[in-house]
Amino acid sequence: MRTYGDACGITRALDLIGERWALPVVRELLLGPRRYSDLREALPGISTNILGSRLKELTEAGVVHRRRLGPPAAATVYELTAWGAQLEPILLQLGRWAAHTPVDLREQAFSVSSFALSLRTTFDADTAGEVELHLWFVIGEEILDARIQRGDFQIQRLPQSSDSPPPSRDRPPRIDSDPKTLAAIIHAGLPPAEAADQGALRVEGSPDVLPAFARCFKLPEPPVEGHP
């Protein structure tokens, strides 16, 4: 493994997680264990060789753990160790720092995990002080369970199961869409009705739930000077 040969804690951290694609791999594991195929799909710009190398390096460094799931899944997954999970606030702060850099969602990849972490990055607890909302974002085969409870926000990926989902009456409002459309609605002000007319959004439940949810998220203020 390449090293800076520098005793500073910053450079020692970069020795472990500074290789290209290392942090995007960590990002994809922040919401829980993922199979190799899940990571490959979420990171379309990475080659299989590089993904294998990053997983091997992160595992050897103690950032990632590889384990075998028991029946009925019977799959090998990668997950963050307790030490690796401590990278979350660092990655969220990086996201806040870069929030106002140029981005073109039409041309760039944006995974389910990226969308979920963008919500953690931009949640405005003051605005959400009295809000209580529970909804599901259904994105392909993945379900994100999102809850706002009086200034607290939690979002998690529900484990995939072969069991049938609970009946509609037992589910929270369900939002079927894709990460880019959802990001455009919540972070860029795309009207949900416009996304629905384009066939990119379907809401099961009250049509007011998504606008109410979106109001609880706000991009950080840009710096006065040095803003890209």
TrEMBL record:
InterPro entries in the cross-refs: HTH_HxlR (IPR002577), WH-like_DNA-bd_sf (IPR036388), WH_DNA-bd_sf (IPR036390)
Database matches in SUPFAM superfamilies: Winged helix' DNA-binding domain
Pfam families: HxlR (PF01638)
Domain of life according to the entry: Bacteria
Annotated segments matching region Disordered: 155-178
Domain HTH hxlR-type: 8-106
Keyword Electron transport attributed: no
Single GO molecular function: DNA binding
Ranges of biased composition (kind: Basic and acidic residues): 168-178
Keywords: DNA-binding, Transcription, Transcription regulation
Protein name according to UniProt: Helix-turn-helix transcriptional regulator
Naturally occurring in which organism (per UniProt): Candidatus Brachybacterium merdavium
